[in-house]
Write a structure and sequence with these properties.
By secondary structure, the protein is α+β, with helices and mostly antiparallel strands. The chain has 2 domains: about 100 residues, Topoisomerase I, Chain A, domain 4 (Orthogonal Bundle), CATH 1.10.132.20; about 70 residues, Gyrase A, domain 2, CATH 3.30.1360.40. The protein is about 60% helix and about 15% strand. It contains 4 helices and 6 strands, in the order αββββαββαα. It has a 4-stranded antiparallel β-sheet, covered by helices on one side.
Length: about 190
């Protein structure tokens, strides 16, 4: 494997880690309604755990309301049970055809808890990116040990990998700041 292949492979891994972190951050409930807060809620669909979005249509008609319309009426109670079991803290309101979820205004205490959850997810994301950098550096050191590259090439490649890591960590921090502002917004 060459230096450029190692760099490209690990940059792709960092992109995937960043995408995964963005998906995780989207599931953290802010003050307004978004369908993505239901992404982790699984419903039992004929014995198979499935996301709500695969068994119903989800819409946001108002800033503080989510409407879920199951494609099969029999799924109505299953979806309600799944929402009640989830850690979202939302109360489903069903009229027999659709389920309405009212998103209550967050208390300051709940906002602080959500920020702590966000910081934990962000730190986990940083750790994943640093681990990817470590894997890349290990591969580069192996190339140098096998005398495929020189010591100077190793140093340059490690500097490039560090710059890449710094760029992704900065992106993670910017995303975290934006999400924190969104959560703390009253």
């Amino acid at each position: 494997m060459s230096i450029s292949e190692i760099y490209t492979t690990h940059e792709d891994r960092m992109k995937k880690a960043l995408d995964g972190l963005h998906k995780e951050m989207a599931t953290i409930r802010a003050g307004r309604a978004t369908p993505s807060i239901l992404d982790k809620v699984m419903v039992d669909y004929y014995g198979t755990p499935s996301p709500i979005s695969q068994v119903a249509s989800i819409s946001v008609p108002e800033p503080r309301m989510i409407v879920i319309q199951p494609w099969e009426k029999t799924m109505l109670t299953q979806i309600e049970k799944a929402i009640l079991k989830s850690d979202l803290g939302l109360m489903p309101n069903s009229d027999g055809i659709i389920i309405r979820l009212s998103i209550p205004q967050l208390t300051q205490e709940r906002r602080s808890e959500l920020v702590k959850v966000l910081h934990k997810k962000v730190e986990d994301g940083r750790v994943v990116i640093r681990n990817i950098r470590r894997d890349a550096n290990d591969q580069l050191k192996k190339l140098e040990k096998d005398r495929t590259i020189s010591e100077d090439e190793l140093k340059k490649a490690q500097e490039d990998m560090q710059k890449l890591t710094d760029r992704y960590i900065k992106t993670v921090d910017q995303s975290a700041s934006a999400k924190e502002l969104e959560i703390m917004e009253v």
